[in-house]
């Protein structure tokens, strides 16, 4: 079936039916092009959303105090809620489902860091050891803050890569003295963070040390905890439990949302996952629709082209062509045409995605790309459809007796 | 070569059945040159289609070179057509996007002949019908007579036993018609059986035997230049009888 002669005949007929060749080719190429651009854009959107969540643990709950907005038990609204170490101890020891927990104490204002002759200004976060699980902190040198640091209030610091580069240059900072606002700390570790450079110009200190050294007593600014593998419903229940406990401890109305913010990233992440799922579904629906319209287009054109060629087919049969000769000629034409133009569409589509990837990166749209196997499946489907679209009308045309095809009007 | 016995054929036309052939008995020997005549609706085209294995029949028997042709698959019919029969049509039926040479070579393609050999044989036949210089031309660039000669070359290329020509001169002027008939006569002289369907008496006169069809039966079957043997009393070919009588008078004692 696939001998050179047949291919000559296929090329010959395709070349001489320019209009239907062009139309079929275009509809197939266009269908594949649109499909690839669509799927690639969907992927870009997904990657953009994933990027938003790259920095923080997605199974975490963040507790940030605010101001009361409702009167409660004789207390006026507008009262600031202040969290303390006892809130941390309470959650850590009595709340079920906590995997890692940390609090944060932030130092206000500019903090001056000095190492030998180098000076710089960087933000400080004073935290518990578990903090590294919440921010996806990767220690690349030395160690992170540990329990002994907390217990003994050691003056140690873990610095970001940017801080290391600016103050220490090529020197190893481990064990080196670092002055923070005039007080000497010992550098024990260097970290990197997938959140980018702004996350890597931070210096972590043990919270207990910071509270004593920088006058924080027992105040904390934020509490964060992770919930391990627990499902959304359980973490939602934990969120409610936390809100109720804090309402009790800090005496504000349980319904007062402004008094304390308990953000469940898990819930948010699930919502985004559902959104992503929705987008993916939508993209597939449109993609399949595009593909289907391509298939219909190809079928239509093949049908018309076969109909136009009824007489030619009749002549071929009178000259000794078997029905199989006729069907295989038309099917090979269709398959060849859809394969070549589909491939062109594929290349163009990948080219368009490549161009889109070079656009300045937006927050919600990053690295559009396509799974090549999906593109190839789509192409195979179109080629198959093209073959079938050729096969059925060709079989009908081939079964018409030549006299009917050749009858003079 | 061609043996038809009691062939009947009818078509369904809506609710009615239109009987086209009502029992045809006909025998054509190898090497004959026969014309089938009749007005439109006489069934001559249907008869030709049956002989050409382009159409099936309802009852009777058709033997081609001794083999019964009945209810063949399309594939088998195509094979037999390719081997035994070359077709010539009134409107030529050349494939418009193929050159004269490619048109002539096409039947050989379906017989699996290699391209080089196909083109060699096709070129040879085009030379024979006097169109060597036109081999690279498309049918639209040829005159009617040239197109029909290309079609005849195409019918001959597979070396068929029979040439079936359906109104081969129907679309041509008289002079060109005679040229085409001369060509067909030459082919006949080489031993090919030629069957021509026509409604033009002067064309029929150029064959050796005339079969007249009317309303689906054979009315007469006569050799040209001899007394027609009327099968039915209604048709009396006076001219032919007269000529034969004249011939008889001249063949007196020398």
Describe the structure.
The complex is a heterodimer of chains A (409) and B (254). Helices cover 55% and strands 17% of the residues of chain A. Chain A is built from 13 helices and 14 strands. In chain A, a hairpin with a 2-residue loop joins strand 4 and strand 5. With 409 residues, chain A is of the alpha+beta class. Chain A is elongated. Chain B is α/β, with parallel strands linked by helices. The N and C termini of chain B lie far apart (40 Å). In chain B, strands 6-7-8-3-9-10-11 form a 7-stranded mixed sheet, sandwiched between helices. Chain B has a 4-stranded antiparallel sheet with strand order 2-1-4-5, with helices on one face. Helix content of chain B is 35%, strand content 27%. At the A-B interface, helix 1, helix 10, helix 11 and helix 13 of A face helix 2 and helix 3 of B.
Instruction: Please tell me the overall pLDDT of chain B.
Output: 85
Report strand % of chain A. 15-25%
| Protein chain pair with the most extensive contact, residues per chain | A-B, 28 and 31 residues
Taken as a percent bin, the fraction of beta residues of chain B is 25-35%
What is the radius of gyration of chain B?
19 Å
Structural class of chain A: alpha+beta
Attribute tags:
heterodimer, A: 409 residues, alpha+beta, B: 254 residues, alpha/beta, four-stranded antiparallel beta sheet, 27% strand, globular, disordered C terminus
TL;DR?
Chain A is an alpha+beta fold and 409 residues long. Chain A has 13 helices and 14 strands. In chain A, strands 1, 3, 4, 5, 6, 7, 8, 9, 10, 11, 13 and 14 form a 12-stranded mixed β-sheet that branches. In chain A, strands 2-12 form a two-stranded antiparallel ribbon.
Itemize the secondary structure elements and their pairings:
The complex is a heterodimer of chains A (409) and B (254).
Chain A: H1 4-16, H2 18-52, E1 60-65, E2 83-84, H3 85-94, E3 100-106, E4 112-115, E5 118-121, E6 124-127, H4 131-134, E7 137-142, H5 147-152, E8 156-160, H6 161-167, E9 177-180, E10 183-193, E11 203-206, H7 207-213, E12 219-220, E13 222-226, H8 232-250, E14 260-264, H9 265-308, H10 310-318, H11 323-358, H12 372-399, H13 402-406
Parallel strand pairs in A: 6-11, 8-10
Antiparallel strand pairs in A: 1-13, 1-14, 2-12, 3-6, 3-13, 4-5, 4-9, 7-10, 8-11, 9-10
Helix pairs in contact in A: 1-11, 2-9, 2-11, 2-12, 9-12, 11-12
Chain B: E1 2-13, E2 16-28, E3 33-37, H1 44-51, E4 59-64, E5 67-68, H2 74-84, E6 85-88, H3 100-110, H4 115-128, H5 144-156, E7 162-166, H6 174-189, E8 193-198, H7 201-204, E9 209-214, E10 217-223, E11 229-230, H8 238-250
Parallel strand pairs in B: 3-8, 3-9, 6-7, 7-8
Antiparallel strand pairs in B: 1-2, 1-4, 4-5, 9-10, 10-11
Helix pairs in contact in B: 3-4, 3-5, 4-5, 5-6
